Amino acid sequence: MRVFICFEGSWEPFDVPPDQTVGAMKQMVKDYFHVQLSDDKQVHHCLELSYAGAALQDGWALCDVGIAPGSAIPCLIKNVQKPVMHVFNVVTRETVPIMGSVFLLTASVARLKTMVSLQCGLPVSSFRLSTPSGVTLYDCNQVHDYAIEVGTTLRLDTWDGWVEFLHGCFLGHRLTVQSHLSEEKPLMRFQLRVALYLAAFLGHLDLADWLLERGVHAEEPVGVHPYRLWCHQTAHPDAGKCPIHVAAENGQLLILKLFITKNLLALACRDPGGRDPLRIAVQHGHRECARYLATKLCSVVSLTNISLPMRTYLQVKRWVRLGQRRAGSRRCSSAPFRSRVGDTVLVDGFTQPKMTSKSRRDETKSNRRIRAKALRPLPSISRSPWASHLPSKSPSQQASLQLPSVRSASSGDSKETWKKQKHGGNSREDGLLGDTKHEDSSQWRSRVPLPSIPRETNHRPLFVNASPNSSHILTSSLESFSRRCGRTPRENAIYCLAMASTFTERPWLKQLDIARTLLRKSIQTVT
């Protein structure tokens, strides 16, 4: 079929098959008009064919687009601006283009981190940038100090163990965010502020509402990581941005209404540049947000005996809060640093960075390996205060410790055993743990309080309204355990207590918890 190409004011006919692709059509136009397309590091020149007001892609066929014979196809040379550099986000696994001029390479790293934060939504204190060779970019340096060229792909890393947490923040899953919070209170509070920042950026209303109920304030800055609190004076300026500012920048009207409903002071909160949310919304062209904020600022607050304009009310509230803070600062002595003794401190360029994007699973596996290496040479049972009564074993037999069997308490021998215990003879527990002739039984019982031997022969039913054969359920399971394990349940409990008592540095209740854990592990292994 014949189509007409309009290029630089001339109309030329081209005979092409109906299944001709747009890419091949562009090559025919380049050869016919002798078009020379230049390509440099910043600008990419290319041909663009359009039909019915839409640009045609190279892989499309002319018949699939609906181009009929005799149609006119405009052609022009398009200049495409190339990104100055790219940033690979480890959290989202996406490559973010950084647009701008070549002068961005002469800017500071802090300016570059601000641009990255505006595109990906992460606060500047939650990530770091590094070169392809792994060199960390610090805020105080210039980008060209690291020999970064146009088109370089940088790497964005977050704090170790934060990958799953930030995934939950990006998706707005409250349960995921809650399950990956840190156990350290300062770090957990910082994570909650980061989560509210991301919820305001992405518009996750449910997550933002839950975070506000947890005590996070929309007018509170995200701040810096607790490991860097001691050097907060040299922190990035954008660390003072609040979630209310992020919501105004991105036009999240519902998030703004939620924040202002919870606390009216968010209307007067200013960012590090001195802008309030209304000014931010106006500068970014969000009309609905600007209209809502202006209406709120021009409203009247009705109190018990007086009505005040909103701006006056906010000014009074700010004075009251400032007085409360000053009164609180006088009560407690101010320290030169906000860190405490024993806290982790990070110094740029000197300490090992904690922002390598290690997942929580990798950290758990590494901790398990360290614990396994530390627990591989188990301490001998002879360190127990009553393990000397156990029969001596060879090193090969210590792994499978076997105690002498205990006969079930029958109606005949239980009375005899009770008589022996009453007359000061060797008790049943003494026979389990070996020879106790050289030690008083009262002293031994004070060290290891074991339950006494039951004297009643009639077993009670398991349930109140149970059949007479209901006790067989427990008896059969205990018999199967003894047959597979080689020890009765009582012997197994004493064995676990003997193993747990080797941890002499732990208190007795901790040793009891260890014994319970070992007991559950042994039952799960057998079953």
What are the key terms here?
19 helices, alpha+beta, five-stranded mixed sheet, Ubiquitin-like (UB roll), Serine Threonine Protein Phosphatase 5, Tetratricopeptide repeat, 527 residues
Can you walk through the features of this model?
With 527 residues, the protein is an alpha+beta fold. It folds into 3 domains: 2-81, Ubiquitin-like (UB roll) (Roll); 89-302, Alpha Horseshoe (Serine Threonine Protein Phosphatase 5, Tetratricopeptide repeat), CATH 1.25.40; 381-456 and 466-526, no CATH class. Helices cover 40% and strands 12% of the residues. The protein contains 19 helices and 12 strands. A hairpin with a 4-residue loop joins strand 6 and strand 7 (94-98). Helix 6 (185-202) packs parallel to helix 8 (243-249) and helix 18 packs across helix 19. The radius of gyration is 37 Å and the shape is extended.
CATH class categorisation of the largest domain: Mainly Alpha
Radius of gyration, rounded?
A: 37 Å
| Number of structural units classed as domains | 3
Structural class: alpha+beta
CATH superfamily of the largest domain: Ankyrin repeat-containing domain
Q: Quick one: biggest sheet? A: 5 strands, mixed
Total beta strands: 12
Q: Beta-strand level of the residues, as a percent range?
A: 5-15%
Overall shape: it is: extended
What CATH architecture label of the largest domain applies? Alpha Horseshoe
